Automatic annotation (TrEMBL):
Keywords in alphabetical order: ATP-binding, Nucleotide-binding
ABC transporter domain boundaries: 8-219
Any GO molecular function: ATP binding
PROSITE patterns tied to this protein: ABC_TRANSPORTER_1 (PS00211), ABC_TRANSPORTER_2 (PS50893)
Stretches assigned to coiled coil: none
Name assigned to this protein: ATP-binding cassette domain-containing protein
Species: Streptomyces coacervatus
Amino acid sequence: MSGTDVLVVCENAALTFGRGATAVVAVHGADLSIRPGDRLAIVGPSGSGKSSLLHLLAGLERPTSGTVSWPGLDPSAGIGLVFQADSLVPALDVAENTALPLVLAGRPEAQTRRPVADALDLVGASDLADRLPEEISGGQAQRVAVARVLAQQPRLILADEPTGRLDHATGARVLDALLTAADRTGAALVVTTHDPAIAARLTVRRAMHDGRLLAQEDVS
């Protein structure tokens, strides 16, 4: 496998917030490579550094030391990120929210309809297309946020606790959609979670503890 087959590489990547006595090390020297088709769960409790590591992988944060590189993709276009918090635009309906990244990327409206419809169908939200965010539940909003990422068909999907606020059945459906979309496109999927049942459905698990990424557990 050549270097360009690796989507993203962390080499001794660390992330510190603040300086001096008040500095907080969110990630300590992480080493990690993500390749097409990978299915990785990063497991750990709240505050263990999972979200910070995901932000490094997405390019949302720059490492304080070490490096993060993307030899196999353009991080501005090839990464889809499912956030933990609410992220829908209140003034746009569900279909418009799902299409938003495609519109911002310059795709004509006529070319957004099919990927938006397919993504909403995949997460079981087709019947919500005309509703505003204030008219749907939190679980439904999270499914729409996942659909918005899937419509982009990214090569790397980063999902930060995507099922954390959902009931078991809805959470399972969201993960089903992420896995199905990744399988269809060959994308890599990285999911942070504190739920062992969610982690067990991905091929590889890495635990985080106090900002440290621990050794790989291959469960294939």
